[in-house]
Amino acid sequence: MTPPLEGIVVVDLSSGIAGAYCTKLLADGGADVVKVEDPAGDPLRRWSASGAVIAPDGDGALFAFLAGSKRSVVADLDRADDRTLVESLLAGGDVVVWSSGSLIADDPAYAPAAILERHPHLVVTALSPFGLDGPWADRPATEFTLQAWSGGAVSLGRGAPDRPPVSVGGRVGEWITGAYGAIGVLASLARERAGDPAGELVDVSMLEAVATCLTYYPVTFAEIAGRPYRSGRSVPSPGVESASDGLVGLGTGTGQQWLDLCVMVGHPEWEDDAQLRTERWRIAPAIREWAAARTVAEIIDLAGAFRIPHAPVGNGATIPVTDHFVARGSLVTNPRDGFLQPGPPYRFTPSLLRAPAPAPRLGEHTDRVGDVTSRPRRLPRAERAEAEARPLAGVRVLDLTAFWAGPVVTQMLAMLGAEVIHVESPTRPDGTRMLANLPFTDDQWWERCGIFSALNVDKQSVTIDLADERGRAALRTLLATCDVLVENYTPRVLEQLGLDFESARAIRPDLVMVRMPGFGLDGPWRDNAAFAFVVEDAAGFTWMTGHPDTNPVSPYCIGDPGAGLHALTGLLLALEHRRRTGEGVLVEAAMVDAALNLTAEQIVEHSAYGALLTRDGNRGPAAAPQNLYLTADVTVDGTGADTRDSWIAIAVATDDQWRALCDALGAPAWTEDATYATAAGRRAAHDDLDAHLAEWCATRTADEIVQQLWTAGVPVAPVVQPHHQAQLAQLQHRGYFEVVDHPVNGPALHSTLPIRFSRGPERFVTGRAPLFGEHTDAVLLAAGVSAEDLAALHAAGITARAPAGAAG
User: Fold this and answer.
1) DSSP code at position 249
2) In terms of DSSP H, where are the helices of 121-161?
3) Tens digit of pLDDT for each residue in 182-198?
């Protein structure tokens, strides 16, 4: 099978994880990725998060994972011939992926806009901390400080209230930025379906990526509800629990799961205490005692029987031997160096991805890229498509998703121009409609949740009760008019509806079907209930998040949007295959497969070096000092009382930043310690540095600290509350939030995509979230359902304009 991106040449001018992951996803899809490195090579070649020694002529395991199937060219820009080589690669390429950090990318001639000006046929995709423009575009940042700016460091109440907030571990911002970069490339290339070469600048902001994926639409929720989604910090109970022989993750995502948990742990009386739904700290001691008396296997067996979301807490050592991952073949052998690494984050029927190939040695292909440099230069058409043309215009999507992971896929499709029809059942509406926690006696409570509004802009709403054969018949009629079906039910649900891939393809032969089961379509965990937190537990996110002297905590965020990013990437690859061949495709985008790719560093480090990466509070492997420090600001807690809970993030990733920090502090005597002159010395003395910085920050406000350090060149950020994102000057400048009006909720800010396309659209959101069942009649009649049959569906309650039994 020919991979969908075969024939596409990507010139990789990036360094670090984000660019490497972006181009890995493209290379797996069949693109010819030519990595252009300066003579020193990508620093990732010499990187190991555990500090493993890498041979002078070798590469780090993470590089070997991310660079598979690519080519490497070395260019010294001081040599005229090498500049000519780079220019020839750009002339023969289709796509450029750029990030700063190398002598080539940081040369003004190879800034993204300069490249596009000389080579207007290229899709130039730039990955940067804040985006390429705006008041913060040139300010220093690390993934850690971006989490603080975005609200991701305190998102969803993560962490104990008597400890500092807890950032998500594992440098997740780098990985998701890379995934967004691949989506930007594929969406831009999709413009060629209309025969228009797609040269443009695709600008991806890591701040916006982190704001999108590590928080749960906090601004929209707060504007509609008049209060934050969550305030304060807490450790969920149940959550990560200590069994007698290890850690296990438990959680409840629905009311029924809470009731079942009460029975499972032997406390049915909890069911009658309504306050326990919001005061779970009261049951924490009993849950701890119950878990400590049982093994992980016993707890998993019980939770499975009660259908309560659960998973062992995986890490780099345990994931490779976990029965489900072994049964599914989730890990594969690196083709060059022999360590274990995650397989691709999606699987296709028919198979579409290229067979894995080894990562290149530095400069291995410098003299072997004539096939690219001699390619005829593609020229953009004289008549360009209008700026507002959206990449996926003309694609029709049947959306059978709910909650977060699935709806975020179709939300992005809608913003990129697809027509999306969101189907809900009158008896089981999308669960996000209920997250405002309004009384069911309130007027139109089901329309008033900001999270539902944010996830469903630009969609149409159709209600069909799929438990009734007449409803299923109407759905089949609708399916025949659609190009894509996206669903995130547990596997057995779609099969019970008679809509497995073969059945759906009998209705629409060229259908692209995206299935998003939590744990995949096969394996021992196939039918397990999956929410973001248990996926995070199983795949290693949880293991890396939290303070080292306590149990880890689930991030409670990235498991859902991370799955959505990869499902969309797989979908775009499948659409390209269909465009080239006319053939339908099944995309299996299991949530846990996406998560394993985003936590790949744990797996490759342990397999390659025997090193077990683990959580370290707010410290990280790439910067020292790096931590959160309490400021002098007085804040107001959830009871209205004054307290000190204002934190500042500081991260020093380079020797230059260390010197800048010392100068900004006024060069106090303690900074003259020679131990601190090197990154290794600073890491070894991290406790001492924390003490000095904590003392300095405690007498200053967050604003004073940011002003003093940021202007000096030190990555720094206040820990922003998520619902204050819209106050950030950088997000305001880039138009990340757009005002969307709504007949029930009125106008409110809605977040968009962390990507800007130079060819538009200027505005991503063109329509509000739909009212429940608002488009049922129009959509079904247009699809071919007769007026008589539609009337019968209404009369039988198979369609509805309000959830069954709703008041108001």
Assistant:
1) E
2) 143-150
3) 999 999 999 876 555 66
State whether residue 143 is helix, strand or coil: helix
DSSP state of 679: H
What is the model's pLDDT at position 661? 98
Strands 512-515 and 585-588: parallel
Residue type, 350: P
Q: H helices of 279-434, where?
A: 284-292, 296-306, 323-328, 370-373, 405-415
The torsion region of residue 638 among left (phi > 0), alpha (psi -120 to 50) and beta comes to alpha
pLDDT average, residue stretch 288-303? 96
**CA distance linking residue 10 with residue 372, whole number of Å:** 10
Place of tokens 């800048």: 660
Structure tokens at 550: 């306590």
Q: 206-217: per-residue pLDDT in tens?
A: 999 999 999 999
User: Which pairs with CB-CB distance under 8 Å and at least 24 residues apart come from 683-688?
Assistant: 683/624, 686/619, 686/624, 686/625, 686/627
So what's the pLDDT on residue 414? 98
Q: What are phi and psi of 388, to 5 degrees?
A: -85, 0
What is the Cα–Cα distance from 210 to 150, expressed in whole angstroms? 7
Question: Which domains does the chain possess?
Answer: 396-531+546-598+763-795 (3.40.50.10540), 624-714 (3.30.1540.10)
In degrees and rounded to multiples of 5, residue 400 shows phi and psi of -110, 55
Number of neighbours of residue 544 by Cβ within 10 angstroms: 24
Q: How many CB atoms lie within 10 A of CB 437?
A: 11
- For the ranges 26-40, 150-164, 448-462, the lowest mean pLDDT is seen at 150-164
The C-alpha atoms of residue 237 and residue 258 are separated, in whole angstroms, by 11
| Three-state DSSP class for residue 728 | coil
Closest CA to 435 of 700, 662, 216: 216
Pairing of strands 512-515, 635-636: unpaired
